[in-house]
Amino acid sequence: MVTKQKTKATRSASRDDWSLTAGQTLFMMQRHNAILSAYEREDLAFLTSLETSAEYRSAFGKMSWDEAFDRYESTWIDEDETPLAS
Asked: What is the domain partition of the chain in residue ranges?
């Protein structure tokens, strides 16, 4: 019975898991400054080109850019600080 509860808890945790894989994190970290700069300049063409790239699709599959960036942002954002604020 403990095993069933543990398995159920593990499944629930994975549904709520907001983390990125190592490959996904690496993709974002390698482009971190360029991504933040694109947001500051409101350069949606750059962000769209990232999302439609073969490298992005290889790392993220069908995950939308918004979800991927939100997940990435949640790994490094400080509770009291907005990373995109000037």
From this structure: 20-86
Assigned token pair, 38: 């694109």
- Structure-token match 């954002």, residue found: 77
What span, in angstroms and rounded, lies between the C-alpha atoms of 4 and 51? Answer: 39
- Name the residue among 54, 86, 59, 58 with its Cα closest to residue 71: 59
For CA atoms 7, 10, 64, 27, the dihedral sign is negative
* The length of the chain, given as a count of residues: 86
Question: DSSP secondary-structure letter at 78?
Answer: -
pTM: 0.69
Q: What is the sign, positive or negative, of the torsion defined by CA atoms of 73, 18, 60, 65?
A: negative
- Point out the residues of the chain with pLDDT beneath 50: 1-15, 86
